[in-house]
């Protein structure tokens, strides 16, 4: 009993010392960034702790649901110097220099994006401070068209911006209606999500509406998502408050096409073809290609080889996607294929029908791999 009492006493002393050390770091951090805090609406200790902790983790239709702080968080908000062990990591993990650089970079971003006027909202009806939030990703309509490379770069930029400018603000990232393609999409953006944020990603299965109510109160959810919120006319989508995604109207286009950079350029002689071989090691990978012509049309098809180590004619291979003619000198062309079996796939540029003209083609070929951990989760849902 005496030994156990000593252990408890030692643990309490250690925690107290850690809190005091953390408080010292916090005060020093506040002193280092005092010149920029005047531009922040509420630079309390919790705000500074977000950057101290976030610097250790960061390496860019969505529904937003506020997370109301628990009692311990409210106590901390009322008394900023009361640092709970639940919210304060070991002080030895704090990197003041990295945290300061991250915050100062955020201040530049804040001014560029005019966040002072955008991010000052607090729901008056709650009368509580909102410190974290939940994002629900509805991926029902996720398809191969979303794997267009410029679109994926937008997703990557979103997560990168998010991680670097809003650390420690996410409680959960919830995915509902995840299709089989989700592990591939996740693997593309995973490098831009910190390990700490990855732990907060929840993929819900067939009973997602019931499970969602365990994480978000029904009075904060549209009826469409298992909650109680509806429009005055009874619409379960709750359109009076939520703007659902969709196809971008052409009136918002800044330009009709994007300038692309390609990894390869070849000249396909008249009466001939050019084959690009790509090995797929396991099912579930996404084969993606993009190309543009400098001139007239060309045929493009996808084949699966039946013999390894030698070039095969089109008729000797398995036709996966029939050859079609493209006039991509006007706009870039792209395509994707979910590979159902392993093997060597061939992107074939066909100019055999041309008796006079050769064709210059610029192209890029990629294989998008699924995240195996999430792939197994999806299979079990």
Automatic annotation (TrEMBL):
Alphabetized Pfam families for the sequence: CRAL_TRIO (PF00650)
Superkingdom, taxonomy of origin: Eukaryota
Domain GOLD: 259-367
Annotated GO CC locations: cytoplasm
Domain CRAL-TRIO: from-to ranges: 126-233
SUPFAM superfamilies: CRAL/TRIO domain (SSF52087), Supernatant protein factor (SPF), C-terminal domain (SSF101576)
Record InterPro entries: CRAL-TRIO_dom, CRAL-TRIO_dom_sf, GOLD_dom, GOLD_dom_sf, SEC14/CRAL-TRIO_domain
Secretion signal, residue range per the UniProt entry: none
Name used for this protein in its record: SEC14-like protein 2 isoform X3
Organism: Phascolarctos cinereus
